[in-house]
Amino acid sequence: MGTAMAPYRPSLLARSPGRALVAYLTSRRNLTGSALALVGGGLIMIDPVGVQGLLLVVGLYMVGALAVRGNGRVSRFGFDPKRVQRSLAEQIGAAAGRLPPAIIARMQRIELTIRTEILPRLECLPLGAPELYLIERTVSDYLPTAVEAYLRLPSGYVSSQPGSHGRAAVDVLAEELDFLDAEMRQVAEAVHRTDMDQLLAHKRFLADRFRRVDAKD
Fold first, then answer.
1. Whole-number percent of the chain with pLDDT over 90
2. Buried-state track 124-144, b at ≥16 Cβ within 10 A, e below 16
3. Which residues pair with 12 in a beta bridge?
4. Using alpha carbons only, how large is the chain's radius of gyration in Å?
5. How far apart (Å, rounded) are the C-alpha atoms in residues 60 and 41?
6. Same domain for 85 and 61
7. Is the domain of 109 the same as that of 185?
8. Mean pLDDT of 193-217
9. Is 206 part of any domain?
10. For 124-138, what is each residue's pLDDT tens digit?
11. pLDDT tens, 54-112?
C-alpha cells in the first residue's frame, strides 16, 4: 500500500490577504471611523442634504480612522492574550518581597497554567464561552483584588471577628489563590479535552480512510 499524500493546506501567502482584511475590520481604527460614519448617517436621515451628506459620512469615517492608532485590534476572545500574560508577570513582580514565598509560589502556579496551557490554545474555546470571562476576570480582578486586600492588613494579622476562629490573613489568601488555581486548572482541562476530542476524531478518520484503501486493494 502506497504512502498517502498529505492533505493540501493553503500557504501563508495565499491566506494573508484575507487575514489582513479581518485584521483591519476588527481594528480600532475601522471601528472608530465606522462609529463616526454612523453618526453622520444619522444626521443625514434627520436633515437630508444630498451629495454633501455622502461626503460628510466619508469625511467623518476618515477623521475617526486617522485619529486612532492603527495597531490596535479587538480580539475575538474579548481580551488581549498578550496583555493578560503581561499583567500576570507584572503582578508577580510587584508582589515579590512583599508576600510570603508560599503565596508567591501559588501566584506563579496560576500564571504558569494560564501562560503555558490556556493562552496558546484559546481558539479551542468557543466565542462567548464562560471560561473566557473567567480567565479575564481572574487576571484583571479576582487575583489582584485578593492580593491587595491582604497587603492592606498589618503583617501577621489574625482575625478577631466572630466566627473567624482566629484565622490568619495569609491562610485566607492562600485558600483564595488555591481556589483560583483550581478554577484555572478546570479551564485548562476544558482546552485539553477539546484537543483530545480532535485527536480521537482524527484517529477515527484515519482508521476509516485506511479501511477504504485496504478494501480497494
1. 39
2. bbeeebebbebbbebbeebbb
3. none
4. 26
5. 10
6. no
7. yes
8. 72
9. yes
10. 888 788 899 999 999
11. 666 676 677 666 666 544 444 677 789 999 999 999 999 999 999 999 999 999 999 99
Measured in whole angstroms, the distance separating CA 156 from the mean position of its chain's CA atoms is 36
Alpha-carbon span 26 to 48, nearest angstrom: 30
Domain that holds residue 60: 18-67
Lowest-pLDDT range of 18-22, 66-70, 119-123, 175-179? 18-22
133 located within any domain: yes
What pLDDT is attached to residue 161? 63
Q: Which three cell numbers stand for residue 173?
A: 489568601
Confidence check: pLDDT of 49 > 50: yes
Total domains in the chain come to: 2
H-assigned helices in 26-168: 28-46, 51-67, 81-95, 101-112, 130-137, 143-151
3-state secondary structure (DSSP) of residue 51: helix
C-alpha cell belonging to residue 46: 434627520
Does residue 88 sit in the same domain as residue 187?
A: yes
176-196 exposure pattern, b = at least 16 Cβ within 10 A, e = fewer = bbeebbebbeebbebbeeeee
| Grid cell of 150 as nine digits | 491582604
